[in-house]
Amino acid sequence: MAFRDKRIVIVGGGLGGLALMNVALTCGITNIEIFEQAREDGEVGAGVDITANANRILDVFGLKDTLLRFSSPKLPYFMEYHHYKSGDYLGHIEEAHEPHARLIQRGHLLQALKEFLPHEKLHYHKHLTSIEENNTSESAPYTLHFGDGSATKADIIIGADGIKSKVRREMGIGDSPNFSGQVVYRGYVDYKDLPEDTANLLRTVVNFRGPKRHIICLPIGNKPTKTDRIGFIGFMTESLDTWDSENWVSRSTIGDLQDHLSEWCPQVQHLIQGLFQSSPDGFMMKQALYVRDPVDRWYKMKEGEEDVGIALLGDAVHSTLPHQGQGVAMAIESGVALAIILANWQGNDLQDAFQFYQDIRKPRTDEVTKTSYEAGKLGSSDDPNHFSENFNPEALMKRMEWVMDYNLLEDLHAKNNGRMAFKDSWLS
Ligand SMILES: Cc1cc2nc3c(=O)[nH]c(=O)nc-3n(C[C@H](O)[C@H](O)[C@H](O)COP(=O)(O)OP(=O)(O)OC[C@H]3O[C@@H](n4cnc5c(N)ncnc54)[C@H](O)[C@@H]3O)c2cc1C
């Protein structure tokens, strides 16, 4: 039986899981469903920047118009840098890639990726608690159990359940994630709550670069749909000693953020006032940034079975610090790669298919993880007295070129070697 006729279950309806589902259905896989722990309307939004390498493949699979509806138009620069204290302009990186970066609220991105999916294939409020391996006389090799007492059967399981992946643990990978030393404060600011000069400055992506801290302002959405506002992302160095939540995502007073930024420029003070306007209760989202070390094996076969197994994608297997804005893009690339491979593989050897998927993806995601860590060091300066002299936007741009020039579909085509059916139209 071809993999496309197997019962495939995706755990996690985040960005990687939804990207996989879209392409799988387009490629003719029908027996595939998503089980997501959140309620359908339960998404906590944040601004994300989808770069050219991910947009390029989403467009091939018919998602361009739906994505553009709620995303930013082409912006003047990819990123503009300002001094944290004076607010002075330091330099910028041109947007040199097509399709250009799309800045969008995460909730709108999820909505766009769900637009063409049959509702009955998406199951919400289903928290995976365990995966049971059945013996061969059972009707399916795996049973997935959920927190509400329900269960479902599967031949192939895809763990797209984020950095705290339960599927990963069920596969026997018991490592712990590493705290990066930074926390992120996230919120939104409406343009109408800013003085005109500051509002105009923030119509492009701006990075206020400071000592061991930096702030990125994303002009997400667009005017015609009245979704335009600023996604505020403040990277602050903090110890976890005072962290009073068991979760990595918590709430913080805007005052805590203000304490970090008391000496920062007037534009940053305007942003803080804007955050207060958007959140009258005085709270905002705060997230501790963790990353996992790369693992050797992204999949696990069921013993004695040729065509039954589990694979991981997205943050579940290649989580990265967000300093190159690549977490979403890597999850999308991996989701699309796995969907194409499963739908078009010649033969029944699932291990070969999973290994091909890993061989295509792992070298790239390992490198992105490494360079994102380095980019974080450049984004915030360790030495505030010298950072203007050390700053070099051309070098920063060069660092990102290999990430954004990449075309997953060309890579799959080049390395395919007859192992799967491949449509030339995917290359146009
Ligand atoms: C501050 C910050 C800013 C970022 N900015 C960017 C950016 O600009 N650009 C970018 O590309 N990336 C960015 N990222 C990274 C990005 O958000 C993630 O890398 C991306 O969401 C990973 O996609 P995913 O599908 O693997 O996981 P997720 O999007 O996290 O989805 C996982 C899904 O699995 C579900 N789930 C988890 N456990 C279970 C379970 N047991 N049962 C059922 N469902 C479960 C979750 O509810 C979730 O919906 C940023 C990250 C941070 C922290």
Automatic annotation (TrEMBL):
Recorded GO MF terms: FAD binding; monooxygenase activity
Segments forming domain FAD-binding: 8-177, 310-370
Superkingdom in the source lineage: Eukaryota
Keywords: FAD, Flavoprotein, Monooxygenase, Oxidoreductase
InterPro entries: FAD-bd (IPR002938), FAD-dep_Monooxygenase_BioMet (IPR050493), FAD/NAD-bd_sf (IPR036188)
Regions that span the bilayer: none
A Pfam family hit: FAD_binding_3
Family: Belongs to the paxM FAD-dependent monooxygenase family.
Protein's recorded name: FAD-binding domain-containing protein
Provenance organism: Penicillium malachiteum
